[in-house]
Amino acid sequence: TRHGGVLALKYCLSVLQHEHVKEIIHQSFDAIFKCLADNSDDVSAEAAASLVPVKDLLLETIPEKTPKLIKFLWEHLSDLDELTSSTSNIILLLASLITSSSPHLEPNQLIEHVPRLWPLVSHSSTSVRMSVLKALITLTKLQDSPCALWMPTDLLSTNLRLVFQRSILENMNEVRPYIEAIWMQLTKINRDKASISECKLNLLKSTSQYLNYWLCLTMQPSRTPIDRGYALWLNIRSDGTVSDVKPEGEIYIGSSTFNADTMEQQKAEITNCRILGTKLLGVLYTSLVNDIEESQHSRDTLKYLSDMFVHYLSSKSANQRMISGWALESWAAHQLSEENCDKITLPEALINQLKTALKETTLCYDELATAFTRLQQEVRDFVTSLVAANIKTNLPIATDRRLIYNLSQIQYLCDLDIESELNRIDSKKPSLDDTTSHDVTSKPVFSLLVNKKAALSQSYQTTMASQRNLSISTLSSLACALISWSSIPSNMNLLINPLLDSIEKECDSAMQEKSAKYLVRLIDYLCCEPGSHQEVISTIINRLIDALYFSSASITLNADDPNLVSRSLVKSTDDEKLIDGHRILLLDSLQRKADQSRNLIRRQSSVGGNTSSLKRSISQTSASEFETNEPVQEATSSRLKAQEVKIRGVSMAFKLIVDHFGHKLPDKLPQLWAIINSSVKAQIDSYCSQVKKEYNTSETDIKLIKDLTVLEFVGQNLNTVLRGNLFELFADLIRILNSTNPLIRHQVCRCLGMISKLEFKSIESIILTGIIPMLESSEVTSRCGAIESIAFIIEHLNLELVPKIDMLIVHVLRRMSDQNDRVRMMATHCFGKLLSLMPLNDEQAKQPKQQQLVDLKQSMKSEESEFIEQLLDPRKLKNHQLPFETSVQLRSYQQDGLNWLAFLNRFNLHGILCDEMGLGKTFMTICIVASDHFNRASRDSSPENRSKQSPSLIVCPSTLVEHWLDEIEKFVPSKTRSILNPIAYGGSATDRISIKHRISSTQPVDSNQKPENEKAINIIVTSYDVLRNDIEFFKSTEWNYCVLDEGHIIKNGKTKLSKAVRLITAKHRLILSGTPIQNNVTEL
């Protein structure tokens, strides 16, 4: 009962209006307060939760009772533990009240209250940890003076130790800012000259013995548990007192547990914890060495820190060097951001050691000692096996384990041709029968040596990859440290190469961002220096551009070398496949992703959903299957991941460069600005002036693709002052949207999507007049470029496109029936995206339309809105009036069918008429075909224009050919038949040749017929078999209507008939079928 009552109050307080809540608080507070002390955890938890949403109203409504509530919550903390259900809500309530009320507490009271929060700093609930840290921040801010002045040394030391330990364990990003904030508050130094010495001395006493230990904690190996029994590690009991007993269980840096199933996430969390730890140390170092000129303690501390870092930088541990670099960089960054802080310089010995470490690019790190030991053992075993097989390698035999093989010798063994060596040995042996051929590959020694060589190569490649990764991370960290302290060496490559390598190859995004940040700092330094560094800056920019182009093109083309592939993009020579210039690379990418998803789902479903069964399946897979499939998949996945990492890093670098220089970009980096401002436009002009009859990529085209790639990644981050140039460039980009080079088209489309995202209103009219008309172009490349650009515009705008759906959906729907397969599939993808946004457009449609619209926009929007209404509600279709009289009266359902056919005709769409047999499908089709020919003849009344009009094709079963001719004669009046001239195409080969001649020449068969009575044949009725046999004739003509009677015959797209039908080009395509779905919906 109590639980139900307090639960009802909680919801009432949460949802009722402001004035009602105040009244409820007055009447119910005493009851809720009583429930807080209830013996049932569930009741007390709900009581605390009911007051959290109204904490501000508590202070306003019942200020006299708030101190009583806060006092009770403080006293109740000692009874809580992690397993108590009310813990989270009580902590949230206490922290909220402390934060909102900020009661003035004396230092003695704070000293008493703060330790009560210590056990909850490591609570398993993220919300509790955040609330506790907020409460600590509020409590430490209540005093005007810094914590180091009023807080006892042991209390300050305990707080700092606890917060730092949490920093290397915290795995939630939303908690980390509060850890940093409380650390800043605890280490804050008063700038008052009278108290700065005392403040610094207390801080130094609280932290001096932990300076080295804390740095070592950030260097903790990821797979080694932290020793919580060590004297300097702080363990807290549930009552807030310090414990000397080592807790049970193991904890690791990055989290309280180590989960090998989430290795990638674990690595990222470890890096984030290390970075946070070094940030805290940088803040502490800044406070300790401030006022170095007047304080001997500061000078001694600086000397101690310098010696400590020199020691770690002199070691062979990549981890120690890397973390040292991060700590030094954080120290410099905080010193630079701190106001009224004395700017110190590092001792010369430390700077020199940094530069020395940066030059050691081939150092063998301690972290790889085990891997190198294993590698040396495999080399010894392989050399021994070679000697046993009488293969000479000129390498020393490892009789002594102290013998070390260098990398060049190991590489020589990995490249050794086992088969050739064994053949050479066999050739020297005398043979009893010269006719017998020796196959060395069948010998056991060959299999033994090949397997050992493969294992050695794998170990060598893995070890060298680990060495490269460690080297990149370590050297980039040291480079960041030197740049942060403005210690720029004369040899710029010592800084540039590690930073660029890290940006391009570092898997961790946080480390990439750090390197990109200091690369921008270096570029800014080079721009500000009086010496000429433009060549160095150009080298940096060009390398970033090349990396961005290579990776982007590699992923787009799914190739290792985009320069080679972009020259060819050659497909199969099969005549049925499109030429290379018709590729839509976005569509290729979507299809690859879909295939990968299907394969992944198929593999998961075949082995079960959990990881353990997946591992069992892999372990049970035969060696031959593994060697055949797995290396290829791993190589492809690894290559794509490397390119994605490079794109992420380089795009991050360009973003930081553009953000840093802002509107000064043209002055600071003229070479980068020139690409956006003038180079792209000049290349577009040059490209358009060239006549390209077939697709062939030149060096000029590659330069254009590079600049377009830069435009995409730089343009999206441009300062608003500089964006005007992008809008001017939009129309120029459309000029090459019909390029025969798919890669150029693809990159242009990406740029168009990016620009439309920045300011859609500015380029809306250009889309209407430039891109939309290209969807109706007779050139396939124009339609490919237009539909791909619309796909990118939809992708970039997404919800912002909702008010403008009507502008695109009609034209996209038309392309869903395009003659080109790729355009059709891309249009289908776009239509699906637009369709998902259409429900959001209902409210937009109810709003009053803008009065000041351009006539073009207004007319297009009106027509498209009408189309949407009629598409979604066929009852709104207008009745189609036949332009001629007929002796047959249309029934109501036939009028509805004719209205729908006229709707398709008006909007250049294609469809399936699915009425049942006997309802007049033939009659309705004849009416719409005759109407279309009649209307076109009326518009183009001259004989010359009439003869140029496209004929219509009707394909039906052979038994219905004459039936169609009879129906046309029956339903179409004589006046209209003067415009329609049908003919049956069939018979023997000789007969069909005669009919072909008659169709093509349009001359009367009878020579005595007068010339004025001759008329062109514009309706051809044929059978499916004849169509398949004479497809060369039929596909060479552009038809007006192509009607397939009983069209379900082509439901199997793999038959020769279906493939032949799909080669026909027609403005309107119509299928008649009473049974459109016989087995499943995919037949449609």
Summed up, what is this model?
The chain has 1084 residues and is mainly alpha-helical.
Walk me through this protein's architecture.
It comes from Aceria tosichella. GO terms for molecular function: ATP binding; ATP hydrolysis activity; DNA binding; helicase activity; TBP-class protein binding. Residues 605-637 are annotated as: Disordered. This is TATA-binding protein-associated factor 172. Residues 902-1084 form the Helicase ATP-binding domain. This protein is mainly alpha-helical. Among the domains are: 366-423 and 440-524, no CATH class; 667-846 and 853-874, Leucine-rich Repeat Variant (Alpha Horseshoe), CATH 1.25.10; 892-1006 and 1013-1083, Tandem AAA-ATPase domain (Rossmann fold, 3-Layer(aba) Sandwich), CATH 3.40.50. The protein has 48 helices and eight strands. The chain has a six-stranded parallel beta sheet with strand order 3-8-7-4-6-5, with helices on both faces. Strands 1-2 form a two-stranded antiparallel ribbon. A hairpin with a 5-residue loop joins strand 1 and strand 2 (242-243). Helix 24 crosses helix 28 (623-661). It starts with a helix and ends in a 12-residue tail after the last strand. Mean pLDDT is 82; it is low at 568-579, 609-630, 846-856 and 1003-1013.
